[in-house]
Amino acid sequence: MPGLESTSGVDSTVENIGRLPPDVFAETTFQRAGIDLEWKALQSIIRLLSSNFRTAAKNNLTADQLVARLGEGSRHWAKAVLQVVHQLWSEHGSLIHTYQEAHAMASIGQMVDMQWKLGMAVSSDTCRSLNSPYVSLLLKVADTSGEVSYKSFEMTIPQFQNFHSQFKDISAALETV
Amino acid sequence: MADADTVKSLNGLLNGIAQKIYYNKSEITEDLLKNELYPDLSPEEFHALHEKMKSLVKSIASADMDQAQLEAFLTAQTRKQGGSGGVSAEQAAALSRFWKSHRARIRESLVGQSRWEPGLRGLSWRVDVQTASSRGEPSGNAVALVELELGRQGEDSDFVCLEFDEVKVNQVLKKMAEIQESIDSIVNKS
Protein backbone atom coordinates (compact mmCIF):
# COMPACT_ATOMS: atom_id res chain seq x y z
CA MET A 1 0.00 0.00 0.00
CA PRO A 2 1.73 3.19 -1.08
CA GLY A 3 2.32 5.72 1.65
CA LEU A 4 2.92 3.37 4.57
CA GLU A 5 6.35 2.04 3.65
CA SER A 6 9.25 3.09 5.82
CA THR A 7 11.76 5.55 4.41
CA SER A 8 14.23 7.74 6.23
CA GLY A 9 11.92 10.68 5.49
CA VAL A 10 9.08 8.93 7.30
CA ASP A 11 11.33 8.05 10.25
CA SER A 12 12.49 11.61 10.80
CA THR A 13 8.93 12.89 10.44
CA VAL A 14 7.76 10.34 12.98
CA GLU A 15 10.51 11.38 15.38
CA ASN A 16 9.40 14.98 15.02
CA ILE A 17 5.87 13.96 15.97
CA GLY A 18 7.33 12.40 19.12
CA ARG A 19 8.76 15.78 20.05
CA LEU A 20 5.28 17.29 20.33
CA PRO A 21 3.54 16.96 23.71
CA PRO A 22 0.62 14.50 23.39
CA ASP A 23 -2.24 16.96 23.93
CA VAL A 24 -0.73 19.36 21.38
CA PHE A 25 -0.35 16.50 18.94
CA ALA A 26 -4.04 15.74 19.33
CA GLU A 27 -4.88 19.36 18.53
CA THR A 28 -2.53 19.40 15.56
CA THR A 29 -4.20 16.41 14.00
CA PHE A 30 -7.27 18.43 13.14
CA GLN A 31 -5.92 21.95 12.99
CA ARG A 32 -2.48 23.45 12.90
CA ALA A 33 -1.04 24.54 16.23
CA GLY A 34 1.59 27.24 16.46
CA ILE A 35 4.60 25.10 17.24
CA ASP A 36 8.09 26.34 16.63
CA LEU A 37 9.23 23.36 14.55
CA GLU A 38 11.05 23.87 11.31
CA TRP A 39 8.42 24.67 8.67
CA LYS A 40 9.11 21.79 6.32
CA ALA A 41 9.03 19.34 9.25
CA LEU A 42 5.60 20.59 10.22
CA GLN A 43 4.31 20.32 6.67
CA SER A 44 5.65 16.77 6.52
CA ILE A 45 3.92 15.90 9.77
CA ILE A 46 0.58 17.13 8.50
CA ARG A 47 0.93 15.35 5.18
CA LEU A 48 2.02 12.11 6.83
CA LEU A 49 -0.90 12.17 9.23
CA SER A 50 -3.47 13.15 6.57
CA SER A 51 -2.16 10.52 4.21
CA ASN A 52 -2.28 7.81 6.90
CA PHE A 53 -5.78 8.76 7.97
CA ARG A 54 -7.05 8.81 4.40
CA THR A 55 -5.51 5.43 3.63
CA ALA A 56 -6.92 4.00 6.85
CA ALA A 57 -10.34 5.40 6.02
CA LYS A 58 -10.24 3.98 2.50
CA ASN A 59 -9.44 0.53 3.84
CA ASN A 60 -11.81 0.82 6.77
CA LEU A 61 -9.08 -0.04 9.27
CA THR A 62 -9.95 -0.29 12.93
CA ALA A 63 -8.00 1.83 15.38
CA ASP A 64 -5.94 -1.24 16.35
CA GLN A 65 -5.15 -1.98 12.71
CA LEU A 66 -4.17 1.63 12.01
CA VAL A 67 -1.82 1.72 14.98
CA ALA A 68 -0.33 -1.66 13.97
CA ARG A 69 0.27 -0.40 10.43
CA LEU A 70 1.92 2.80 11.67
CA GLY A 71 4.22 0.67 13.81
CA GLU A 72 5.12 -1.43 10.76
CA GLY A 73 5.84 1.72 8.78
CA SER A 74 8.36 3.09 11.27
CA ARG A 75 9.90 1.95 14.55
CA HIS A 76 10.14 5.52 15.76
CA TRP A 77 6.55 6.21 16.84
CA ALA A 78 6.34 7.20 20.52
CA LYS A 79 3.86 5.13 22.56
CA ALA A 80 1.97 8.20 23.82
CA VAL A 81 1.52 9.39 20.25
CA LEU A 82 0.12 6.05 19.09
CA GLN A 83 -2.33 6.15 21.99
CA VAL A 84 -3.63 9.52 20.87
CA VAL A 85 -3.96 8.30 17.26
CA HIS A 86 -5.83 5.25 18.54
CA GLN A 87 -8.26 7.37 20.51
CA LEU A 88 -8.85 9.83 17.68
CA TRP A 89 -9.43 7.06 15.18
CA SER A 90 -11.83 5.21 17.47
CA GLU A 91 -13.88 8.39 17.74
CA HIS A 92 -13.74 9.66 14.16
CA GLY A 93 -12.52 6.88 11.89
CA SER A 94 -15.80 5.38 10.75
CA LEU A 95 -17.27 8.78 9.92
CA ILE A 96 -14.31 9.62 7.70
CA HIS A 97 -14.58 6.26 5.95
CA THR A 98 -18.27 6.79 5.13
CA TYR A 99 -17.59 10.28 3.80
CA GLN A 100 -14.72 9.07 1.64
CA GLU A 101 -16.74 6.26 0.10
CA ALA A 102 -19.53 8.60 -0.94
CA HIS A 103 -16.95 11.03 -2.28
CA ALA A 104 -14.95 8.51 -4.30
CA MET A 105 -17.78 6.76 -6.09
CA ALA A 106 -19.15 9.89 -7.66
CA SER A 107 -15.96 11.24 -9.07
CA ILE A 108 -13.70 8.96 -11.11
CA GLY A 109 -13.14 10.71 -14.40
CA GLN A 110 -11.23 10.26 -17.60
CA MET A 111 -8.64 12.75 -18.69
CA VAL A 112 -9.65 13.76 -22.21
CA ASP A 113 -6.91 16.28 -22.85
CA MET A 114 -3.91 17.86 -21.16
CA GLN A 115 -2.42 21.21 -22.08
CA TRP A 116 0.68 22.66 -20.53
CA LYS A 117 2.46 25.93 -20.14
CA LEU A 118 5.89 26.77 -18.80
CA GLY A 119 5.83 30.22 -17.22
CA MET A 120 8.03 32.55 -15.22
CA ALA A 121 6.64 34.72 -12.48
CA VAL A 122 8.78 37.81 -12.81
CA SER A 123 7.56 40.11 -10.05
CA SER A 124 4.51 40.81 -7.92
CA ASP A 125 3.29 43.51 -5.62
CA THR A 126 4.94 41.81 -2.64
CA CYS A 127 8.14 40.86 -4.39
CA ARG A 128 9.83 42.78 -7.19
CA SER A 129 12.33 40.07 -7.87
CA LEU A 130 10.33 36.85 -7.92
CA ASN A 131 12.04 35.06 -10.84
CA SER A 132 10.16 31.88 -10.23
CA PRO A 133 9.59 29.39 -13.07
CA TYR A 134 6.49 27.18 -12.91
CA VAL A 135 4.64 24.56 -14.93
CA SER A 136 0.92 25.07 -15.40
CA LEU A 137 -1.35 22.22 -16.49
CA LEU A 138 -4.92 22.41 -17.82
CA LEU A 139 -6.73 19.07 -17.71
CA LYS A 140 -9.96 18.44 -19.58
CA VAL A 141 -11.82 15.83 -17.58
CA ALA A 142 -14.96 13.86 -18.51
CA ASP A 143 -16.86 12.34 -15.60
CA THR A 144 -18.85 9.09 -15.69
CA SER A 145 -21.89 10.86 -17.14
CA GLY A 146 -19.85 12.40 -19.93
CA GLU A 147 -19.92 15.89 -18.50
CA VAL A 148 -16.73 17.82 -19.18
CA SER A 149 -14.92 20.03 -16.71
CA TYR A 150 -11.54 21.74 -16.61
CA LYS A 151 -9.00 21.52 -13.82
CA SER A 152 -5.90 23.64 -13.81
CA PHE A 153 -3.02 23.78 -11.40
CA GLU A 154 0.55 24.99 -11.07
CA MET A 155 3.73 23.29 -9.97
CA THR A 156 7.22 24.46 -9.23
CA ILE A 157 9.93 22.83 -11.34
CA PRO A 158 10.95 20.33 -8.64
CA GLN A 159 7.27 19.46 -8.06
CA PHE A 160 6.81 18.90 -11.78
CA GLN A 161 9.83 16.62 -11.90
CA ASN A 162 8.41 14.60 -9.02
CA PHE A 163 5.06 14.46 -10.84
CA HIS A 164 6.81 13.23 -13.99
CA SER A 165 8.70 10.61 -12.01
CA GLN A 166 5.48 9.32 -10.41
CA PHE A 167 3.89 8.87 -13.83
CA LYS A 168 6.94 6.88 -14.90
CA ASP A 169 6.32 4.65 -11.87
CA ILE A 170 2.68 4.26 -12.88
CA SER A 171 3.73 3.30 -16.39
CA ALA A 172 6.13 0.70 -15.03
CA ALA A 173 3.43 -0.70 -12.76
CA LEU A 174 0.96 -0.98 -15.65
CA GLU A 175 3.51 -2.82 -17.74
CA THR A 176 4.23 -5.42 -15.11
CA VAL A 177 0.56 -6.37 -14.64
CA MET B 1 21.78 47.10 27.98
CA ALA B 2 24.54 44.48 27.56
CA ASP B 3 25.58 43.71 23.98
CA ALA B 4 24.46 40.11 24.08
CA ASP B 5 20.98 41.22 25.12
CA THR B 6 20.79 43.77 22.32
CA VAL B 7 21.76 41.16 19.76
CA LYS B 8 19.26 38.71 21.18
CA SER B 9 16.44 41.25 21.11
CA LEU B 10 17.28 42.28 17.56
CA ASN B 11 17.34 38.69 16.39
CA GLY B 12 14.03 38.11 18.13
CA LEU B 13 12.49 41.20 16.55
CA LEU B 14 13.55 40.26 13.03
CA ASN B 15 12.37 36.70 13.56
CA GLY B 16 9.03 37.96 14.86
CA ILE B 17 8.61 40.25 11.85
CA ALA B 18 9.25 37.32 9.49
CA GLN B 19 6.79 35.12 11.38
CA LYS B 20 4.09 37.71 11.04
CA ILE B 21 4.45 38.94 7.47
CA TYR B 22 5.79 35.84 5.72
CA TYR B 23 4.91 32.82 7.80
CA ASN B 24 1.29 33.72 8.57
CA LYS B 25 1.60 33.79 12.34
CA SER B 26 -1.13 36.32 12.95
CA GLU B 27 -0.91 35.88 16.72
CA ILE B 28 2.38 37.78 16.72
CA THR B 29 1.54 41.42 17.27
CA GLU B 30 3.65 44.53 17.70
CA ASP B 31 2.61 44.65 21.37
CA LEU B 32 3.69 41.07 21.91
CA LEU B 33 7.08 41.74 20.38
CA LYS B 34 7.54 44.88 22.45
CA ASN B 35 6.64 43.19 25.73
CA GLU B 36 8.81 40.17 25.04
CA LEU B 37 11.84 41.89 23.60
CA TYR B 38 11.92 45.58 24.45
CA PRO B 39 9.93 46.09 27.65
CA ASP B 40 12.03 49.13 28.60
CA LEU B 41 11.42 51.13 25.43
CA SER B 42 8.52 53.57 25.19
CA PRO B 43 5.72 52.55 22.80
CA GLU B 44 6.72 55.31 20.36
CA GLU B 45 10.40 54.32 20.39
CA PHE B 46 9.53 50.67 19.84
CA HIS B 47 7.08 51.49 17.07
CA ALA B 48 9.77 53.47 15.24
CA LEU B 49 12.26 50.60 15.60
CA HIS B 50 9.70 48.03 14.52
CA GLU B 51 8.66 49.99 11.46
CA LYS B 52 12.23 50.62 10.44
CA MET B 53 13.21 46.96 10.72
CA LYS B 54 10.04 45.85 8.96
CA SER B 55 10.66 48.21 6.08
CA LEU B 56 14.26 47.02 5.72
CA VAL B 57 13.25 43.36 5.76
CA LYS B 58 10.59 44.01 3.11
CA SER B 59 13.09 45.80 0.86
CA ILE B 60 15.62 43.01 1.17
CA ALA B 61 13.00 40.32 0.55
CA SER B 62 11.36 42.13 -2.33
CA ALA B 63 14.66 42.41 -4.17
CA ASP B 64 15.71 38.90 -3.18
CA MET B 65 19.15 40.35 -2.49
CA ASP B 66 22.25 38.26 -2.85
CA GLN B 67 25.26 38.70 -0.60
CA ALA B 68 26.80 41.54 -2.62
CA GLN B 69 23.56 43.47 -2.97
CA LEU B 70 22.81 43.05 0.72
CA GLU B 71 26.19 44.36 1.78
CA ALA B 72 25.89 47.38 -0.50
CA PHE B 73 22.37 48.05 0.75
CA LEU B 74 23.29 47.78 4.43
CA THR B 75 26.39 49.90 4.00
CA ALA B 76 24.28 52.63 2.40
CA GLN B 77 21.79 52.36 5.27
CA THR B 78 24.46 52.73 7.95
CA ARG B 79 25.75 55.87 6.27
CA LYS B 80 22.35 57.56 6.26
CA GLN B 81 22.20 60.66 8.42
CA GLY B 82 19.44 61.46 10.83
CA GLY B 83 18.12 59.65 13.89
CA SER B 84 15.44 57.54 12.29
CA GLY B 85 17.13 57.03 8.92
CA GLY B 86 20.36 55.30 9.82
CA VAL B 87 21.03 51.74 10.79
CA SER B 88 23.61 50.86 13.43
CA ALA B 89 26.42 48.41 12.73
CA GLU B 90 24.76 45.97 15.13
CA GLN B 91 21.45 46.19 13.33
CA ALA B 92 23.17 45.73 9.97
CA ALA B 93 24.93 42.62 11.26
CA ALA B 94 21.67 41.25 12.65
CA LEU B 95 19.90 41.87 9.33
CA SER B 96 22.68 40.13 7.46
CA ARG B 97 22.49 37.04 9.69
CA PHE B 98 18.71 37.08 9.53
CA TRP B 99 18.61 37.14 5.73
CA LYS B 100 21.14 34.32 5.45
CA SER B 101 19.03 32.00 7.52
CA HIS B 102 15.54 33.05 6.36
CA ARG B 103 16.04 33.83 2.69
CA ALA B 104 14.96 30.47 1.28
CA ARG B 105 11.89 30.20 3.44
CA ILE B 106 10.77 33.80 2.84
CA ARG B 107 11.22 33.30 -0.88
CA GLU B 108 9.08 30.20 -0.74
CA SER B 109 6.42 32.19 1.08
CA LEU B 110 6.52 35.01 -1.49
CA VAL B 111 6.32 32.58 -4.42
CA GLY B 112 3.37 30.89 -2.74
CA GLN B 113 1.65 34.23 -2.12
CA SER B 114 1.89 35.14 -5.79
CA ARG B 115 0.45 31.86 -6.99
CA TRP B 116 -3.29 32.18 -7.45
CA GLU B 117 -3.94 29.00 -9.38
CA PRO B 118 -4.37 25.88 -7.28
CA GLY B 119 -1.16 24.05 -6.48
CA LEU B 120 -0.55 20.32 -6.45
CA ARG B 121 -0.71 19.28 -2.81
CA GLY B 122 -0.49 15.56 -3.31
CA LEU B 123 -0.70 12.67 -5.68
CA SER B 124 -1.57 9.08 -4.94
CA TRP B 125 -2.16 6.23 -7.32
CA ARG B 126 -2.85 2.55 -7.59
CA VAL B 127 -3.12 0.05 -10.41
CA ASP B 128 -6.22 -2.15 -10.64
CA VAL B 129 -6.92 -5.12 -12.86
CA GLN B 130 -10.49 -5.21 -14.06
CA THR B 131 -12.12 -8.59 -13.40
CA ALA B 132 -15.67 -7.88 -14.60
CA SER B 133 -17.82 -4.99 -15.68
CA SER B 134 -21.50 -4.32 -16.27
CA ARG B 135 -20.72 -2.97 -19.71
CA GLY B 136 -19.21 -6.28 -20.84
CA GLU B 137 -15.68 -5.00 -21.34
CA PRO B 138 -12.98 -7.67 -21.54
CA SER B 139 -11.48 -8.45 -18.17
CA GLY B 140 -7.79 -8.43 -17.37
CA ASN B 141 -7.32 -4.78 -18.35
CA ALA B 142 -4.92 -2.94 -16.11
CA VAL B 143 -6.05 0.52 -15.15
CA ALA B 144 -4.29 3.16 -13.10
CA LEU B 145 -6.32 5.27 -10.70
CA VAL B 146 -4.66 8.56 -9.93
CA GLU B 147 -5.89 10.95 -7.28
CA LEU B 148 -4.66 14.53 -7.49
CA GLU B 149 -5.03 16.74 -4.46
CA LEU B 150 -5.29 20.35 -5.62
CA GLY B 151 -5.74 23.48 -3.57
CA ARG B 152 -5.25 27.19 -3.29
CA GLN B 153 -3.56 28.73 -0.27
CA GLY B 154 -5.85 28.73 2.70
CA GLU B 155 -8.57 26.76 0.94
CA ASP B 156 -9.65 23.16 1.33
CA SER B 157 -8.31 20.60 -1.09
CA ASP B 158 -10.10 19.55 -4.25
CA PHE B 159 -9.59 15.85 -5.04
CA VAL B 160 -9.59 14.88 -8.69
CA CYS B 161 -9.68 11.16 -9.35
CA LEU B 162 -8.75 10.01 -12.83
CA GLU B 163 -8.52 6.68 -14.61
CA PHE B 164 -5.68 5.94 -17.03
CA ASP B 165 -4.91 2.96 -19.22
CA GLU B 166 -1.44 2.28 -20.60
CA VAL B 167 -2.08 4.25 -23.78
CA LYS B 168 -3.20 7.31 -21.85
CA VAL B 169 -0.26 7.16 -19.48
CA ASN B 170 2.12 7.07 -22.43
CA GLN B 171 0.42 10.10 -23.95
CA VAL B 172 0.88 11.94 -20.66
CA LEU B 173 4.53 10.88 -20.44
CA LYS B 174 5.12 12.18 -23.94
CA LYS B 175 3.76 15.60 -22.96
CA MET B 176 5.85 15.62 -19.81
CA ALA B 177 8.96 14.90 -21.84
CA GLU B 178 8.09 17.94 -23.96
CA ILE B 179 7.75 20.05 -20.82
CA GLN B 180 11.09 18.81 -19.53
CA GLU B 181 12.70 19.65 -22.89
CA SER B 182 11.31 23.14 -22.60
CA ILE B 183 12.65 23.53 -19.08
CA ASP B 184 16.07 22.26 -20.16
CA SER B 185 16.28 24.70 -23.04
CA ILE B 186 15.62 27.63 -20.70
CA VAL B 187 18.17 26.44 -18.17
CA ASN B 188 20.76 26.12 -20.89
CA LYS B 189 20.10 29.60 -22.16
CA SER B 190 20.54 31.34 -18.79
Q: So what's the oligomer here?
A: heterodimer
The 3D shape of chain B can be described as elongated
Number of domains of chain B: 2
- In round numbers, the mean pLDDT of chain A is 79
Instruction: Count the DSSP helices of chain B.
Output: 6
Number of domains of chain A: 2
Strand/helix succession of chain B: HHHHHEEEH
Order of helices and strands of chain A: HHHHHEEEH
Report low-confidence residues of chain B grouped into runs of 5 or more. Answer: none
The proportion of residues forming helix of chain A, as a percent range, comes to: 55-70%
What structural class do you assign from the helix and strand content of chain A?
alpha+beta
Strand order of the largest sheet of chain B: 1-2-3
How far apart, in Å, are the first and last alpha carbons of chain A? 16 Å
Give the fraction of residues assigned to helices of chain B: 55-70%
Structural class estimated from helices and strands of chain B = alpha+beta
Contiguous helical run count of chain A: 6
Beta fraction of chain B: 5-15%
Our estimate of the beta-strand percent of chain A is: 15-25%
Radius of gyration of chain A (CA) equals: 20 Å
